């Protein structure tokens, strides 16, 4: 369910890492900074789950960032599975994260699978783009 309210800090993180929001995606969403591509990917999933378009736009690389982002209030993001990671660590300048995100919508349940590209500019990680796949 998309909302504009912050996630309660004592609850489990929507990214389904198993950690509390306050020690998982909360600090990344608050600061806009992640130590690596996977943490940024998790925070972006959480932003979709919470309806936080601001975080999504702030963490989108300026060369590919849309002017605005309209989130679907009827979409409920349920789970994130990280399937693969290439580079994207604290000493890398780029990385790729493959994930599958599960959702529920009025039309039913489904999933989105994507290989996302990330870059680190001036010590800040950004989402660049991704290739959506079905398998």
Structural commentary:
By secondary structure, this protein is of the alpha+beta class. The protein has one domain (21-133): Nuclear Transport Factor 2, Chain: A (Roll). The protein has 3 helices and 4 strands. The chain has helices at residues 25-31, 37-50, 53-58; strands at 76-87, 94-105, 108-121, 124-133. It has a 4-stranded antiparallel beta sheet with strand order 1-2-3-4, covered by helices on one side. A hairpin with a 6-residue loop joins strand 1 (76-87) and strand 2. Helix 1 (25-31) crosses helix 2. The longest helix is centred in the N-terminal third of the chain and has 14 residues, at 37-50. It is globular, with a radius of gyration of 14 Å.
Protein topology:
Layout: H1 25-31, H2 37-50, H3 53-58, E1 76-87, E2 94-105, E3 108-121, E4 124-133
Antiparallel strand pairs: 1-2, 2-3, 3-4
Helix pairs in contact: 1-2
Which descriptors apply to this entry?
single chain; 135 residues; Nuclear Transport Factor 2, Chain: A; 4-stranded antiparallel beta sheet; 4 strands; disordered N terminus
CATH-defined architecture: Roll
The number of domains: 1
- Topology-level CATH name: Nuclear Transport Factor 2, Chain: A
* Radius of gyration of CA atoms, rounded to a whole number: 14 Å
Determine the structural class based on helices, strands and strand pairing.
alpha+beta
What share of residues are in beta strands?
Answer: 35-45%
> Strand order, biggest sheet?
1-2-3-4
Ends distance:
25 Å
Class, according to the CATH hierarchy? Alpha Beta
Approximate helicity band:
10-25%
Count every beta strand, where a strand is a DSSP E run of 2 or more residues: 4
Mean pLDDT across every amino acid position: 93
Task: Summarize the helix and strand pattern as letters.
Answer: HHHEEEE
| Shape, per Cα inertia axes | globular
The DSSP helix count reads: 3
Major pleated sheet: 4 strands, antiparallel
Contiguous low-pLDDT stretches (5 residues minimum) are 1-5
Protein name: UPF0225 protein WDU99_01945
Family: Belongs to the UPF0225 family.
InterPro entries: NTF2-like_dom_sf, YchJ-like, YchJ-like_M
Domain YchJ-like middle NTF2-like: 37-130
């Amino acid at each position: 369910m998309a909302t504009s309210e912050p996630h309660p800090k004592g609850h489990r993180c929507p990214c389904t890492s198993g950690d509390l929001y306050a020690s998982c995606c909360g600090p990344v969403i608050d600061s806009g900074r992640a130590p690596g591509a996977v943490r940024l990917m998790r925070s972006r999933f959480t932003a979709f789950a919470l309806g936080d378009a601001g975080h999504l736009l702030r963490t989108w690389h300026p060369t590919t960032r849309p002017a605005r982002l309209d989130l679907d209030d009827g979409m409920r993001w349920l789970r994130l599975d990280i399937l693969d990671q290439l580079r994207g660590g604290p000493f890398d300048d780029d990385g790729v994260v493959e994930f599958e995100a599960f959702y529920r919508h009025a039309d039913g349940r489904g999933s989105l699978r994507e290989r996302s590209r990330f870059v680190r500019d001036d010590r800040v990680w950004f989402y660049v783009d991704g290739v959506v796949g079905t398998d």
